Model the fold of this input.
Amino acid sequence: MIIILKPGISKKQESSVLKEIRKRGYRPHVLRGVARTVIGAIGDELTHQSLESLAMAFPQIIESVTPIQKRYRLVSREAHSQNSTVTVGEHQIGGKKFHVMAGPCSVESEKQLMTTAEAVKAAGATILRGGAFKPRTSPYEFQGLGEKGLKLLAKARKETGLSVITELLSEQHAEMVAEYTDIIQIGARNSQNFQLLIAAAKTGKPVLLKRGLSMKIEEWLLAGEYVLSNENPSLMFCERGIRTFETYTRNTLDLSAIPIIKKESHCPIVIDPSQGAGRADLVKAMCKGAVAMGADALLIEVHPNPAEALSDGTQQVSIEIFAELMQELRPLILAAGRE
Ligand code: PEP
Ligand code: MN
Done:
C-alpha cells in the first residue's frame, strides 16, 4: 500500500501512523520528500488487515491510502502467465482452435433441439447450447423444461457427438445439471450469487461465467475467483452485454472486455452476441468483431424458427443465417491466428 501524508506533518504524528502500520503486520518504508512524506507499507494485502481504514483513523495526518495488489489472485495473469485452456470432452477452449457454441436459447421440444443440433454441427459448431432452467424476467414467461430439457440435451449429445452447455439456476440442482452437461453456465443474473458459484465449482465441471448486467470487470474477475478458489481450474468468462442508456440495443456488448480479460487473466474469454445486443441482425457483425479482438469462443443462439421461439425470439438467428455466419467467420478466424 502507498500512504501519502498531508503536508507539514510532525515526526510525532508520523510515528503514530508508522506504529499502526506495523501493528497491522506491514513493514513501513518512509520516503521523505521536500513537501510530503510517502510511506510504502510492505506486506500481503490479501491476508493482512487492510490499511484503507487508516485514512479515517488519522484524518488530519493521512491524505490517501492506495492498495497496490489486485484483489483477485488465482484468476490473474500474475498467478499463471500462460493462457489456460479448458478441456471439454475432446476439445480445448482457449487453445489454437476457435470454438463456437450454438443452439437455442431454450430447449423447447425434441424436434426443435435435434433439428438445431444437427444444423449447428453441420455448420461447424463443437458445443450445443440450450437452456433447460431459464432465468426469465417475468414469472409468466416460459421457464424452461427443467430436467426434461436436460434429458433432451443429453440425447442430442449422444446422437450428434456435440458437447453440451446449459445454465445452472439453483444450488439445489447442481448435481442434477452436472450429470447431464459438459459445461455449467452461470447466467448474468446469478454472476454474483456466490453460493451458486461455489456449488457449480464443486461439481468439477467447467464453468462459463457470464458477466452480470451491471458488473464491473473487477467484480467479474472476483466472481471467477470463487470458482478457482474452490478447486475448480476450468473457468471461462463470457461477455454478454451490459446495461447502458442505449435503447437501440437490449444490452451494449462490451468488446473491450476481451483484451482486458486477456491482460488481467489467463482464463478463456467467450463472447455471447445474442444476449449482447438482443438483435439477430447484429449477430454476424458482433461475432466478427469478437474474433478479430481475440475472443476464444462464441456462444450463439440459433433457432429453427426464431419467430416462434418461446424465449429471446428477436435475437436468435435462423439455421440458414448461422451457416452463412460460420462461412463468413472462417477467414477472420485464420487471420486471428486461430484454426
Ligand atoms: C441465455 O444464455 O439464454 C441467458 C439467459 O443468458 P444471460 O444470463 O447472459 O442473460
Ligand atoms: Mn437467451
Notes: The pocket of phosphoenolpyruvate (ligand 1) is lined by residues 105, 131, 135, 187-189, 210, 240, 272, 275 (CB under 6 Å). Residues 25 and 47 are 10 Å apart (CA to CA). The chain has two domains: 2-66, 86-335. The chain has a mean pLDDT of 96.
